[in-house]
Amino acid sequence: MSDPMLRLSGVYTDIAQYHILQGVNFDVPRGQVTMLLGRNGVGKTTSLRTIMGHWRARAGQILLDGQDIAALPTPAIARLGVGYVPENMGIFSDLTVEENMILAASSGPLDRTRLDWLFSVFPPLQTFWKGHAGNLSGGQKQMLSIARAMVEERRLYLIDEPTKGLAPAIVSTMAGALRQLKDQGASILLVEQNFSVARALGDSAVVMDDGRVVWTGAMAELAGDAALQERLMGLSMEAGH
Asked: For the chain, which terminal residue's Cβ has fewer other Cβ atoms within 10 angstroms, N or C?
């Protein structure tokens, strides 16, 4: 296998007096979707935030295409081609949809071809292009949040629970957009609690528990083994979690 797009090696992250990540090791293969799974509170979001530089790793390496980015500030990591979709969406409610997208396009004017593709997967963004983002529905805000990360082709996409709390129709739209991004050859690290989405999109899986990685392997292997799901996460994801 070729060198991974991203490699975490012995990563420790502390938040105040709490030791959240405790020696995290995993790879994100190039051109694949890696699912980051586990129960709530085990360190998945902290892992994404540490990769993105929002939290600083106390120890360990975070290698992006072989370059250690662990000590870089967040803007520098973004400029290296890392797109991040936080769980709280991270959009600017007082700005229009168009202005949100312009701000996300760091390399210059919006690319018309890519914008047309985003309109095809997220039609409400075109409908409300001149409207304030704060007036969008919850699902539409999530579409905008993901579209902002997708507005330019990135080396790596970090996406935190994109379907959380969304209606089934919006979940389907979101999954379709992520599948198209995958089909373009994107490297994606995706935190997702909806198992049907994880099973449909994931190539590989990383399962965390208590700040550590407890299992890595093919997503299909995990999806096909309810006993393994139960052992790793204390639940059967087939139950709809």
From this structure: N
